[in-house]
Amino acid sequence: MLLLQTRPLSRGALVAQNSPLLPWGLLAASDSSSASPVAWLMALLFSLILAIYTGPGILGSFSRVRLVGGDHRCEGRVELQQDDEWVTVCDDYWNMDSVAVLCRELGCGAARKTMSGTMYGPVTPKDQKVFIHLFRCNGIEESLSQCEREDAIGCSHDEDAGAVCEGPESVRLADGPGRCQGRVEVKFQGEWSSVCQAGWSFAAAKVVCRQLGCGRATLTRRGCNKATQGQGAIWQRKASCSGQEVSLQDCLSEVWEHNCTHNEDVWVECEDPFALKLVGGRSHCEGRLEVLHKGEWGSVCDDGWGQDADRVVCRQLGCGQPLSPPVKVRRRFGPGVGRIWLDDVKCSGKEPSLEQCLHRSWGYHNCNHREDVAVVCEGQSWVDGPAWWEGRTGGGSLWG
Q: Per the UniProt record, which residue ranges are transmembrane (predicted)?
């Protein structure tokens, strides 16, 4: 009998495994001579039903991602390859976290900015499709396929997403436990080279961590063990960084003759990528603020918190402008449990990420969970005006 093995996919769909599929999911069943007619017909019927109700690509899978229309491969309109065609991505929820994931997936360094896909030519053909899902990334995923998704409803090509990344990968941390720890290597004239500690500084380590989209630099040291030493060339330049640069290429550099060996290769460790979320609300655009640090979610104390900090959070989440609900509304999201990661956070309102605002060191605070920060942003579907929590005429408050 022909055995039809199945596995669950998103949205409850099933697909035949270990069997070649013809276009539109028709089972090729090359060994049908040994199968009973009933089993073969059942398999064929299953494949036809799958084809009719899903069609190619309807399940929201995609195999490749690219940026088109920019000055280089790391800038442009976002497109995904779905089966044999390229589709655009709707810019709802598309924010710097999404761009960071995309740039990481493409090997394009740090995220620079979000853009409208309409800024890039040629003009998107009217018959080109828009991907059926919206991406909701927290910025730490390795690829867009790992981000949470929502159905895209009513998106047109006027809402195509775009992105600008730093450029082709030029620095990396190799042979570490993750992409944010390892031996520093720079790409020079097409070749990866390790870096000598004698021409290195902690300020340069801070730049590398920022360039790679990781958290803050925590360690730079001389020497790697035998298993993590480099094998190839050693970089023949010395970088002089202030620590504020976006990438290592922005640092002043000079040709430097040295007699270093791989015993002096630089090792750098960065914190994990920064992520935040709002929990306890009706959508991801309102709720108690939590930030991710060392793999653990924790809350933020409201000492020193203000409207500028709200603005940074809402922008980072792609949720528009912050609202100013009364304290009783903010308290409806409830207190957190566990860690309180940040205290005395002070923002100018212009920072692209909350991580760049001033604050005490991670985990240092004099607060309890009754002081947890809550934020309410206008969100994607906000239509009721700035006082939605006050209710409508003839009705009570949405918050009781």
A: 38-59
SS3 70: coil
Residue pLDDT, tens place only, 335-369: 999 999 999 999 999 887 898 899 888 888 999 99
Whole-angstrom distance, CA of residue 38 vs CA of residue 15: 19
Residue 120: CA count within 13 A, CB half-sphere: 24
Q: Are 276 and 375 in contact (CB under 8 A)?
A: no
Strands 75-82 and 161-165: antiparallel
Question: Whole-angstrom Cα distance, residue 120 to residue 157?
Answer: 12
Q: Are strands 340-342 and 296-300 parallel, antiparallel or unpaired?
A: parallel
**Cα separation of 78 and 153, whole Å?**
18
What's the alpha-carbon Rg for the chain, to the nearest Å?
Answer: 25
Assign residue 394 a region (left: φ > 0; alpha: ψ between -120 and 50; beta: otherwise): left
Whether this model's pTM surpasses 0.70: no
Place of tokens 């020497």: 223
> What are the structure tokens assigned to 283, written together?
């959508």
Could you read off the pLDDT of 25-69 as tens digits, one per residue?
333 333 334 445 565 566 555 544 433 333 333 446 787 899 998
Token digits for 108?
A: 């394009």
Which ranges in the chain belong to alpha helices (H)?
Answer: 37-54, 96-106, 202-211, 307-316, 327-331
Angstrom CA distances, 315 to 73, 125, 304, stand at 26, 30, 19
Q: How big is the chain, counted in residues?
A: 400
Backbone φ and ψ for 200, nearest 5 degrees, come out as: -120, 160
